[in-house]
Design goal:
With 304 residues, this protein is an alpha+beta fold. It has helices at 35-42, 78-86, 102-111, 130-136, 189-214, 224-240, 246-259, 264-270, 272-279, 286-303, and strands at residues 2-5, 22-27, 50-52, 68-72, 93-98, 114-116, 122-124, 151-158, 163-167. The strands form two sheets. A seven-stranded antiparallel sheet has the order 1-9-8-5-2-4-3, with helices on both faces. A two-stranded antiparallel sheet has the order 6-7. The protein is elongated, with a radius of gyration of 22 Å. The termini are far apart.
């Protein structure tokens, strides 16, 4: 695995545009609103060789949020330039290297749309999410066991670490690539654990956006990774007090911001009454504790 700063650009440091393989860009139709229209607008004066991933699948009815796989002839293609200019912070998608055709690679990715939980239950995957594909295809994993298929390399943005991440399958494997059964690839426990961590990562990233917009007084580090880790620690402790969903975490951050505290320990010292209210799980429900906590902070505001 290789990493380098997003600010250093895509090419030139630890990755170069390959001369012997095709480069593709997979874009997430959930994160990029009206993706089909924007693709055609971006490439209005250039050829567009692209594949709608949900076409011909049970998800065809929601093709307006389908991922699109785009073949890139060079670094100057306007779709790639739009991704680099607008899509890194929001992790719109990622790049793939392959010796296969657009059709072949697209068909392989379609096979990964629905996988199976280790228990056998079917699961849908957002394969265009960079974190999801990294959880499924871990770096240097055996392609005879892990469904890399025709994918030779992944280059994805990690907005939390503010880095590009380059990963690839293990080289020199003598076995044939992993075959995907018609009823879906069976995840192993390690993959499942990484995919579950993606859910937590998504929630903390959403909380980061909420805090940036609504909690300007919350004291957080400057670096994005450190901000993420601070909020992850705060929410992990919050779970112990019964605050288990993103809405409740947003309300907690609002309260912490009012007191200019960024940890439970700081809140205990700065506003002990508020801390006791939020952490006294035996006395009231989560909603009742939050309601009382906002009343307490309103009282503070009126008397200061």
């Amino acid at each position: 695995m290789s990493t380098w700063s997003l600010s250093n650009g895509l090419s030139g440091e630890k990755w170069q545009w390959p001369v012997d393989r095709q480069v593709y860009l997979l874009l997430d139709g959930v994160r990029v609103k009206q993706l089909a229209r924007r693709l055609y607008e971006w490439s209005a004066e250039h050829p567009l060789d692209a594949d709608l991933l949900y076409a011909g699948t049970p998800l065809a009815e929601v093709s307006d949020v389908s991922p699109w796989l785009v073949a890139l002839p060079d670094t100057h293609h306007p779709v790639l330039q739009a991704f680099l200019a607008q899509g890194l912070e929001d992790e719109w998608g990622y790049l793939l290297e392959s010796q296969s055709s657009l059709e072949h690679l697209g068909n392989h990715l379609r096979q990964l749309l629905q996988v199976r939980h280790p228990s056998g239950v079917a699961m849908w995957l957002r394969v265009a999410d960079p974190a999801i594909i990294a959880a499924l295809l871990s770096d240097q994993s055996n392609p005879a066991m892990i469904p890399w298929g025709p994918i030779d390399c992944l280059i994805r943005p990690d907005a939390v670490a503010e880095e590009w991440v380059k990963s690839s399958p293990a080289q020199g494997a003598s076995e044939l690539p992993a075959a995907i059964p018609h009823h879906g690839y069976l995840l192993n426990e390690a993959q499942l654990n990484r995919l579950q961590a993606c859910d937590k990562r998504r929630d903390i990233r959403a909380l980061l956006h909420f805090v940036a917009k609504h909690c300007p007084a919350l004291p957080l580090p400057v670096k994005q990774r450190e901000r993420y880790e601070r909020l992850a620690a705060l929410t992990e402790s919050a779970r112990g007090y019964g605050f288990n969903n993103p809405r409740q975490w947003g309300l907690l951050c609002t309260l912490f911001s009012r007191e200019r505290c960024n940890s439970w320990a700081a809140l205990s010292g700065q506003a002990p009454k508020l801390h006791t209210c939020l952490t006294n799980t035996a006395e009231a429900s989560v909603s009742a504790r939050l309601k009382t906590a906002f009343a307490i902070t309103s009282t503070y505001s009126e008397t200061t």
